[in-house]
Amino acid sequence: MKVVILGGGIAGLCMGIYLHQHDIEVIVNERQIFSAVGGHAFLMHHDGITVLNELAIESKTPLPGKPVHTFILRDAEGLIQNEKTLEDWQCFKRTDLLACLNQFLPVSRLKNNRVFSHFVYEADQIVAAAFSNGEVEYGDVFIGADGANSIVRQQLFGEVKFEPGKVKEVVGIIQHAELAESLQGRFTKFQQKDQGLSFGLIPTSATELVWFMQYDPLLADIPEAMNIRNSEQYHEQLRQLCFNLLKDFPAEVQEVLGANDFRTSYIWNTRDFDLLPGFHYQNVVLIGDAAHVALPFTSAGTTNAMLDAKTLSHCLLNYTDLNDSFLAYYQLRAESIKAHVNLGRALRDSFLDPTSIGVIPLISNVLK
Predict the structure, then answer these.
(1) Does residue 65 fall inside a structural domain?
(2) Helices (DSSP H) in the chain: which residue ranges?
(3) Which UniProt keywords apply (predicted)?
(4) How far apart are the first and last CA of the chain?
(5) 245 domain residue, yes or no
(6) What digits encode the pLDDT tens for the residues 102-152?
(7) Could you tell me the CATH number of the domain that includes residue 347?
(8) Is residue 342 part of a domain?
(9) Which pLDDT does position 42 carry in this prediction?
């Protein structure tokens, strides 16, 4: 059996590593050459960390990630409203995790500069994936891991109906050794009590922090006409948006904004879609954001992508019939995915219309 994976992000790489560990011929196809520059960070709980340890079992490469042992919720004046001990959570910078995963696969299994174009059919059966550079990869099984805007998914199921997340998020990274040292091991979030506005801060190293601002765009926003990431006007509008919305937040928030280079920041328009009726068509199957997208409040996106890879690889190895393996994969993952979509929407609604403080946007002790 030869497996062709379309997309070399976290989901695609995890899938490729699992199959390679079990001597399955696999090719991971990625649209660009990986570069460990920039990128945001995310939280990962026990399930995702377990997968990462399984992937690294045959490697001496040190794993990335910084332990996060405490979540602290403060109000917009800086007063602590809630504090929670986190069991087995870590913060990962996306580029660090990708760099690590890339080392777990032989170079011969990774193909860059391959933008998926379409499937090649013979006698109404999918036999190959064609790429925009003219290259073609034949295989027996094809796995779509090409993200939320998946071309594979579109070709299998048509356009999905994305539901607007109603919340936007600005993400940035700063170097600030003093502040990073004082916040080690802690995820700190400042939340306004009466409207949808928050600011989060997580150290990713001894000197670096990732920050985010979640906001209701009805409060203020950048006009769509100006939302061109590479323009100086956009960067200045983004800086003004953050400073204006967060003007009443504590001094450490102002310090972070003052140290931030807004040329490396961006606005993320959150969104999701309902659970698909299935994740496969013929010999093609979806994983990660290509299969499902949940809102960021659950902090579960990356973990779910890694669990998809683990579950699907297990099904492919344990079922002789390909269709049975895909059906089993969907049955094992669908309920959890649907629950995370619903949880994300509930947390979003609470964020936009807070009737009380203390809503913790983490899945710990909520879903497993």
Answers:
(1) no
(2) 10-21, 46-55, 94-102, 151-157, 177-182, 232-245, 251-259, 301-318, 322-352
(3) Monooxygenase, Oxidoreductase
(4) 33
(5) no
(6) 999 999 999 999 999 999 999 999 999 999 999 999 999 999 999 999 999
(7) 3.50.50.60
(8) yes
(9) 87
